[in-house]
């Protein structure tokens, strides 16, 4: 039986692979290779769900070739682990996980092209808390948990909420930095980078904030991946167009 | 091609719960700032008393 530590280690391993591909490393299907080379296949599948939509960042942001084996591997991760509750009565954490799965499924269906790898991860409904930024501390923590959605090509209520909340997001960044919670700070900076990419005026300079947290706390692979995605967004390096799957 | 294609894996409820906590990580707890320790006052006073005197400028120069 796999433990949470096994899943976390596998997620770090996949984050390193994705980061390498994002930085330009060429090679075979990275997600399928991640599973084939893993000593614990279930942990490797768990890692895909944990990294979520960021698994596709080399294809979305850097224009890497998407392979059919990668699509199959992502679909298998949804078979192995059940979908979380996405209805209005589901706990907030489950709805947050459901949003992340929805983003992964969206990119899988888009990049999968004519392939048959589709996942039935429905968009959560009735998530009214997304638009309520009065308690910006709690709200910004939730947006940090949803940072994988800050990816070009995804669009939904989470993105609408972010567009109207540049100030709460900036406050969240400042608060996280003061609390020395750098993983949360990086995830919120990623949202600011996404807003900058969208042309939304910001009260906080995201590149300076990114450099600050990079120097202080960007050592974990998952945080490094968030930093790399944010930098891509800020520097405008975004692969245009949708690429079909390579078989 | 996926080498483990024929193998179908399904997580147990415990494993499914573990992945949930990794997907939705809470914010880090704040570590307390350094606090003064009253019991260290005597030690600091002893260091102050035992420290060598300030060097003086030699006379006659």
Descriptive notes:
The complex is a heterodimer of chains A (247) and B (61). Chain A is an all-alpha fold. Chain A has helices at residues 4-22, 30-36, 41-51, 57-61, 68-80, 92-112, 136-145, 157-163, 166-178, 182-198, 206-217, 221-234. The mean pLDDT of chain B is 78. Chain B: This is PEP-CTERM sorting domain-containing protein. Chain B: It comes from Streptomyces blastmyceticus.
End-to-end CA span of chain A:
33 Å
Structural class of chain B: mainly alpha
Q: How far apart are the termini of chain B?
A: 88 Å
Largest interface: A-B, 40 and 27 residues
Task: Please outline what is shown here.
The complex is a heterodimer of chains A (247) and B (61). Chain A has 247 residues and is an all-alpha fold. Chain A contains twelve helices and no strands.
What is the topology?
The complex is a heterodimer of chains A (247) and B (61).
Chain A: H1 4-22, H2 30-36, H3 41-51, H4 57-61, H5 68-80, H6 92-112, H7 136-145, H8 157-163, H9 166-178, H10 182-198, H11 206-217, H12 221-234
Chain B: H1 13-23, H2 41-50
């Amino acid at each position: 039986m796999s433990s949470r530590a096994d899943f976390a280690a596998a997620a770090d391993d996949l984050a390193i692979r994705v980061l390498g591909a994002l930085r330009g490393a060429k090679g075979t299907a990275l997600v399928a290779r991640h599973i084939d080379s893993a000593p614990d296949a279930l942990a490797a599948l768990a890692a895909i769900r944990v990294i979520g939509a960021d698994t596709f960042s080399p294809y979305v942001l850097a224009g890497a070739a998407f392979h059919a084996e990668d699509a199959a591997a992502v679909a298998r991760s949804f078979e192995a682990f059940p979908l979380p509750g996405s209805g209005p009565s589901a706990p907030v954490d489950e709805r947050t996980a459901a949003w992340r799965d929805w983003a992964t499924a969206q990119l899988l269906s888009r990049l999968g092209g004519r392939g048959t790898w589709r996942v039935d991860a429905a968009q959560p409904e009735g998530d009214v808390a997304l638009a309520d930024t009065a308690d910006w501390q709690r709200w910004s923590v939730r947006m940090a948990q949803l940072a994988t959605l800050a990816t070009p090509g995804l669009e939904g209520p989470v993105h609408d909420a972010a567009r109207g909340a540049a100030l709460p997001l900036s406050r969240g960044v400042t608060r996280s930095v003061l609390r020395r919670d750098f993983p949360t700070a990086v995830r919120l900076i990623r949202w600011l980078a996404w807003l900058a990419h969208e042309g939304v005026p910001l009260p906080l300079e995201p590149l300076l904030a990114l450099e600050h947290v990079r120097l202080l706390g960007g050592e974990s692979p998952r945080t490094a991946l968030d930093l790399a995605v944010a930098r891509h967004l800020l520097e405008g390096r975004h692969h245009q167009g949708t690429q079909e799957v390579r078989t | 091609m996926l080498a483990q294609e024929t193998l179908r894996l399904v997580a147990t409820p415990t494993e499914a719960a573990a992945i949930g906590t990794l997907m939705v990580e809470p914010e880090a707890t704040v570590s307390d700032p350094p606090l003064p320790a009253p019991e260290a006052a005597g030690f600091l006073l002893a260091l102050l008393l035992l420290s060598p005197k300030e060097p003086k400028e030699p006379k006659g120069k």
